[in-house]
């Protein structure tokens, strides 16, 4: 690639320890960027290309922090009176001065024409060294914007920073390296367009490429989820029965095995989704109180992530899918996960949990030819809703875990109760519920519906839901 064809370069510049590397890591979705609480972590410039479908669309360059901004500014001012680019002349004049090493290093990308994102920690007041840094960047003449990355929740200096920025930058934004969502990353890229007219067309393309790439990841997520739902709902486990079999014990074993297998299928799907959003190195943690720490088949999971009472009535009215012992969700029966998840009729509760003999018609499991006991395919549509809600909640945490975030403690996290995100389907329309119900009937073989068509319809809802979650700021 020659210089003309190269993707635009944006250098992330600022004072040591303000969060430059963290901002870059979040923007470039790269968790290999070195971030540390000790100032001076970054000592050499490092460029991180952003590739979409193997094509480099943008490059972000991480730089060391300014060490001697006042001295650099004084020298640059003198050099501006001479011919040529003051940054180049500064490097030529001072490249052998050891104490100016970091300052010369950080100016390198500017010298080769990079645009600038200047990062400050907005939770502290503006100082004179900051003014010197901003003036250096102004003298460089490069397109530039400022980012306020508040390292803690104090925003009381925001106005004074913004006033300061208006003097020197074409644009400024608040952007939190630890909490920025996908939507905020796109907004930042959109804002970058305004730093220079010449950059407008190329950054327009970059934003389109980012959006397309995101839509394609969402589509892949949707396919992973459709496969997961189909696989789980159709899953069966069986064991041979003979005259000496302790049926109750066997049922318990089958149930454990069923729960374990479905749980593993879900974990595997979630891990694949995590990979799509490029959390490759650091295993991000779910919030301590996340409902996703609950077992898939726990009573709590089913009561908060299954169908609401109103939805049970609606789905019942549609007459298409079995809700099994859904009523028991309200009663909070112990048998919830097992019976509602695996069996169809309320009769199964007595048969299984009352310690009585398994009923002959096999509502919990099915006697096959009198020789086998079988669990599955699922007979309760709640299993589908629990899987959907857990997947959407997992997705929400995944996309909102900024790549620049490394410290896993003391982070305030938006509660799952916000936007009711632990049960996203609770707001779904009857039309959506009808699609879920038809999908359920088709994959579990209760109706002769065309599975391909039902999958397509459910896929559309899931994809729309993922896009809705992505657009939340
Ligand atoms: N809470 C919080 N901490 C942050 C945020 N951004 C950065 N930090 C922390 O601040 C410290 C410095 O972050 P870096 O990204 O390494 O800062 P830098 O500007 O690249 O630092 P140098 O390379 O040393 O100049 C790290 O401990 C980060 O985790 C933020 O938005 N919120
Ligand atoms: Mg750094």
Description:
The protein is an alpha/beta fold and 473 residues long. It folds into two domains: 9-177, P-loop containing nucleotide triphosphate hydrolases (Rossmann fold); 216-470, no CATH class. It is 49% helix and 10% strand. It is built from 17 helices and nine strands. The strands form two sheets. Strands 2-3-1-4-5-6 form a six-stranded mixed β-sheet, sandwiched between helices. Strands 7-9-8 form a three-stranded antiparallel β-sheet. β4 (115-120), α5 and β5 form a beta-alpha-beta unit. The radius of gyration is 29 Å and the shape is elongated. Mean pLDDT is 82; it is low at 324-365 and 408-413. The structure holds guanosine-5'-triphosphate and magnesium ion. Guanosine-5'-triphosphate (GTP) binds next to α1.
**SSE arrangement, N to C:** EHEEHHHEHEHEHHEHHHHHHEEHHH
Mean pLDDT: 82
Number of DSSP strands?
9
Question: What is the subunit arrangement here?
Answer: single chain
The secondary-structure class comes to: alpha/beta
Gross morphology: elongated
Which parts are unreliable, with pLDDT below 50 for 5 consecutive residues or more?
A: 324-365, 408-413
Ions, cofactors and other bound molecules: guanosine-5'-triphosphate, magnesium ion
Total separate domains: 2
Radius of gyration: 29 Å
Biggest β-sheet description: 6 strands, mixed
How many helices? The count is 17
Q: What percentage of the residues does DSSP assign to strands (E)?
A: 5-15%
| Helix percentage | 40-55%
Q: End-to-end distance, in Å?
A: 36 Å
Keywords:
alpha/beta, binds guanosine-5'-triphosphate, 473 residues, Rossmann fold, binds magnesium ion, 3-stranded antiparallel β-sheet, 6-stranded mixed β-sheet
């Amino acid at each position: 690639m020659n210089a003309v064809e190269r993707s635009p370069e944006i250098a992330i510049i600022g004072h040591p320890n303000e969060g430059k590397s963290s901002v870059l890591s979040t923007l470039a979705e790269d968790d290999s960027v070195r971030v540390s609480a000790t100032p001076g972590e970054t000592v050499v410039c490092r460029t991180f290309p952003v590739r979409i479908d193997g094509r480099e669309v943008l490059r972000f360059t991480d730089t060391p922090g300014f060490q001697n901004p006042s001295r650099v500014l004084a020298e640059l001012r003198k050099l501006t009176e001479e011919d040529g680019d003051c940054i180049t002349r500064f490097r030529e004049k001072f490249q052998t001065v050891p104490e100016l090493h970091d300052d010369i290093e950080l100016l390198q990308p500017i010298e080769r024409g990079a645009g600038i994102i200047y990062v400050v920690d907005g939770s502290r007041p503006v100082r004179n060294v900051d003014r010197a840094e901003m003036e250096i960047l102004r003298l460089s003449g490069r397109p530039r914007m400022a980012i306020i990355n508040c390292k803690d929740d104090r925003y009381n200096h925001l106005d004074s920073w913004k006033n300061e920025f208006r003097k020197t930058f074409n644009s400024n934004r608040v952007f939190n390296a630890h909490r920025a969502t996908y939507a905020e990353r796109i907004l930042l890229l959109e804002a970058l367009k305004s730093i220079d007219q010449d950059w407008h067309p190329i950054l327009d393309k970059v934003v389109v490429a980012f959006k397309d790439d995101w839509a394609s990841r969402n589509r892949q997520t949707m396919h992973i989820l459709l496969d997961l739902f189909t696989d789980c709902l159709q899953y069966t486990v069986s064991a041979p029965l003979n005259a000496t079999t302790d049926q109750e014990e066997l049922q318990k074993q089958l149930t454990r095995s069923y729960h374990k297998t479905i749980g593993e299928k879900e974990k595997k799907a979630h891990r694949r989704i995590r990979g799509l959003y490029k959390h490759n190195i650091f295993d991000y943690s779910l919030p301590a109180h996340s409902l996703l720490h609950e077992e898939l088949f726990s009573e709590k999971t089913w009561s908060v992530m299954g169908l609401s009472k109103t939805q049970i009535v609606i789905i019942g009215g549609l007459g298409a899918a079995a809700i099994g012992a859904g009523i028991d969700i309200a009663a909070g029966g112990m048998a919830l996960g097992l019976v509602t998840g695996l069996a169809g009729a309320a009769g199964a509760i007595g048969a299984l949990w009352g310690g009585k003999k398994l009923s002959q018609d096999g509502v919990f499991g099915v006697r096959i030819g009198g020789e086998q006991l079988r669990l599955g395919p699922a007979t309760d549509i709640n299993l589908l809703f629990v899987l959907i809600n857990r997947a959407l909640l997992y997705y929400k945490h995944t996309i909102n875990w900024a790549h620049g975030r490394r410290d896993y403690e003391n982070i305030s996290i938006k509660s799952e109760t916000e936007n009711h995100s632990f049960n996203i389907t609770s707001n779904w329309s009857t039309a959506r519920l009808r699609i879920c119900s038809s999908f359920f009937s088709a994959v579990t073989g209760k109706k002769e519906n065309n599975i391909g068509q039902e999958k397509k319809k459910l896929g559309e809802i899931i994809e729309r839901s993922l896009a809705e979650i992505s657009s939340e700021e």
